[in-house]
Protein: DUF3098 domain-containing protein
Amino acid sequence: MSKKNNNGSKPTKEFVFQKKNYLFLFIGIAFIALGFILMSGGGSDDPEVFNPEIYNFRRIRLAPTLILIGLGIQVYAILLNPNKKNKE
Structure:
């Protein structure tokens, strides 16, 4: 009815990701976390007073760019195949 393993050995289990994948995943997480940290703050203590600090370069350009770079690194880490051999 069911097929049995002819050689009698158990199939080996392999992880999907290797050490290199996890390294890039953690680097991507660090970029994303840094982007959100740089984006925080800038509010005013008094809601009646406008604080132009919320529109500075760090919050409008730098932080979202770091977050997008971090997301790109995450995609690269997922698609990375560390077992791929060079043709040399």
Observations:
- The longest helix spans residues 57-79.
- The mean pLDDT is 86.
